[in-house]
Amino acid sequence: MTVFFFFDVVEEDILFDDRRIGRQLIFAPGNSNLVAVSDSLGRITLWDLRQKLCIHVWKGYRDAQFGWMQVTDKKGNSSKGKQSPAVLVLAIFAPRLAVLQLWLVRRCQKIAVFKVDPHSRLLYTPPLWINKSCVGDHCSPVCLLDSSGNVFSPIVSLASCLNEDRRHSFWTPELRKHFKEQWRNELVSKEQLDGLIEMILSIHRVDDFETFMDKVFSNAKNLDCRLTCTLLESIVRRCEATAGEEEGLDLVGRRCQCMIQVVNFYAVIAALGEETHAGLVGESEFCSPLDPAVIQALNEKLSNILSLRNPDTEGTVLTLPQFLGMFTYDASGPVLKSDLSSESLASAGSFVFTPFFTRLPAHRFGRHYRTLLPLPAASWVLLLCSFWLDSVRSYSVSAEQFLCHLTGLICNQEDSEHLLDIIYKSVLSTHRIPEAVCLSEFVTAFCVSLLDSDGTVNESWETIDRRVVCWTAVCKVLRGMYVLQEFISVCKSVDQSAPRNTSEEDISLRNVLQASSDFFVEMFCRYFSLINPPASFLQTDGNEWWRPTLASLKQQFPFQFSSDSLLLNLAWQTASQWHFCFANVQLLSSVLQHLRSLSTARLRHCSSNLIWKTYCCHIARSFFCFDSEFFDKRVLEQRGRSIPFCLYQLITFCLDSLVQCDGNCAEAPQVPCEDFLYTFMCTNGKLKLAKTLLDRTNELPLANKRNVELHRQLLLTLLCACDSHSYSLGSCSALLELFPERFRGVFFKDMSVSISENEQSFAAVRQPRVSYLKALNADFVEAAPLGTIPNVELLLELCIAWDIDYDILRRQTIVLMLCNGDSQTAFQLLDVVEDHNAMADEFFQLACQFVLCRSLDGDIEISASMRSHLSSKVDRDSLKRTLSKKLTVDILERLVAYVDEVTPSDWNNGAVLNYVKKSLGNLAGR
């Protein structure tokens, strides 16, 4: 009923056409006459039915779900006799973006974005249908059901929807500029300070408070402590006064209160340094802040500060003196004491990270803290690890957030190995399975960051030693987790009656370790496959750098971990990346040479995540199927000749791998790239080609449909090589030798074997195969003696197998015979031509391309351009053929007569044909 009414108001073709298919259509509640429609192109359109007008279009929302929301005043004004206004909001859930967006309809403005589970489902019930001109005034609230069964209901205040100007709701460039000008003033007056506080009080949204915090502490070392604390205190008072109006203000208030203590800590540290430095200046003309006396004096001050703490303070809340008492001075500045317990470190981490952890973006995390406090990155990592291991679950912080922050502190650090050692010790110091599992996830995240970070991964051979050191440090973390697993196993065996504090899933850490090792191996191989080796690498076998690395990695892992697994992954990753650098071809060849020496049973058990059959298919697919954007035949022809043995090994390994696959293997390989096979043939020659490609495919099981097509593709590429004249088959019998007896029946007769429901028909690539067959047919015609018909039995079978009209080659044979001077045999073949119109077109082109010969016999010479066209652009110079053949006037007249007889009277080229007749008549009467 809704659809009938809608089509009565708006024509159907306004919304949908041949390309757009409607997916969802929901009317807005009330008498707004609005409707939201989604289509198959990923667009959501908002229509006004009364005006038949499209109001707004959202693009890029494929598979989106949406519903209407009515935002009203929660306090209600019905007691005063006033009806509370309702504002329409469109909620759009985009699963591909993993966000839920709220759009204010009156201004088509996005007012809120929520990060949600991409596997959620939007729950919404449209408004009640009343009649053809009215829809219910109310609709059910929009809810989002995630994959865990939790229901999320978005909330938006009416004030944020009705506030049109939103004055000072965000930091405009003018306001930010004015704030910075007053902030730089060293002597801020009371009026200027009041102005800054007024700016802060004009902020209404939580996000704007966060923006202000980031702006204030973007350069914390240059802050004035008194001014900073005053501003923070004003924010706290603002949050306490308006805590009930805006969500999240209580969190901002707590964050600012802790920030006041942190700023005071920095001020105390700075004051200690200045005071001690000033006291020692009088004793000597020059005193460095790194002097041992200065460091001792600063440590004494820190101890005195620790004694000032109030013992009546609650023990779980760390005060500023307690926090300062955890530090000591060394040559690099304040550092954490080495004898601190894990509980003290967790309290220190809670003191610093609690007000920021849930709100500060991950990409600003490391920069923010390194700027705020002059601590080395190692201290921050130690604080953060201890804080998370002890207190993170109480703040509902996911492991992913923690890993992002921790990775942000480590990336681009000179002491990455030292930081990883800290994590390694943190794992060993805590005997709790969930935290160890999360740190395993951190190791994988850190590996990814090394690969993706421009600062740590550059394609330079000189940095390889540094990378190996970093990877070794990562291995130490995994090794520490394994030691932790052994410790837990021993504890369980000693006291089996002890209560289990963790679930059975957490106990199985060994599975997590095995998965982490497999992932690490994959990342390691991908990492080294992207390296550009030096130019001398082509003269070496690569053993001087990657085999020692594999040996050291194997020693780091005490559990089941073999170099065979590393070699398998290294071959896989290098094969997928080898087109970036041809030196990797030799590396891959040496790896595969080692793999070929292993038994099949051993290869199948090298890795728990790699099935040998699937691996073989993938390695063949990675090697054979190249992207045309990266593949360059000229580069392979130039550099491929220097490593033909490596290419031969790779081709042989891939085809041998396909032989080991069963006929019903689901991961069947794709057909090899024509350009690659063609270049390989031209590089290696016919004998090696037949040995490497065609003979190997004879062993492929015919039950696999792809294998038959693979063999056909190899033969097709061979015909392409004939076209380039790298070698000539010589005769039809030589070509027949390339077809094994067991393949002929399947190859030429049973076409149903190679074409399945989801594969393209051979007609899709008909034109390239026709050109190959024409080139081969030209070879046969040229080699046949005059007065004889070439033996083209195999070409006829190929045309039948590939669904190509053999009449095309027959017409080409006739034209080539005429050009060779064998006109009698050529005209005899006209009786078996099926398409006479096409034959007439070729004769007409032949007659129109003649030029007058100055010889005494009066013959007509065929132009070189026409001869090149007739022989399908065959390079006749390389075949040592005659560049010019002669046709007599009688033959040309017979051709024109044939054309005149076949073509209709109103033929389009009739005028040109009459001109040719006239020219031939004048030539005959000469």
What is the share of helical residues? Answer: 40-55%
Q: Gyration radius, to the nearest Å?
A: 40 Å
Strand order of the largest sheet: 1-2-3-4
Number of strands: 18
Helical region count? 39
Spans of 5+ residues with little confidence (pLDDT < 50)? Answer: 1-7, 164-172, 275-290, 305-315, 392-397, 453-465, 494-509, 529-543, 557-561, 575-583, 599-613, 620-632, ...
Anisotropy-based shape: elongated
GO cellular component, one term: cytoplasm
GO molecular function, one term: GTPase activator activity
Domain Rab3GAP regulatory subunit C-terminal: 549-619
Family: Belongs to the Rab3-GAP regulatory subunit family.
Describe this structure in words.
Among the domains are: 2-162, no CATH class; 430-493 and 505-533 and 541-609, no CATH class; 611-730; 807-926, no CATH class. The protein is 54% helix and 9% strand. The protein contains 39 helices and 18 strands. The strands form 6 sheets. A 4-stranded antiparallel beta sheet has the order 1-2-3-4, with no helix packed on it. A 4-stranded antiparallel beta sheet has the order 5-6-7-8. A hairpin with a 5-residue loop joins strand 12 and strand 13 (151-152). Helix 7 runs antiparallel to helix 8, helix 22 packs across helix 26 (644-660) and helix 27 (674-684) packs across helix 29. It is elongated and about 120 Å long. The N terminus is likely disordered.
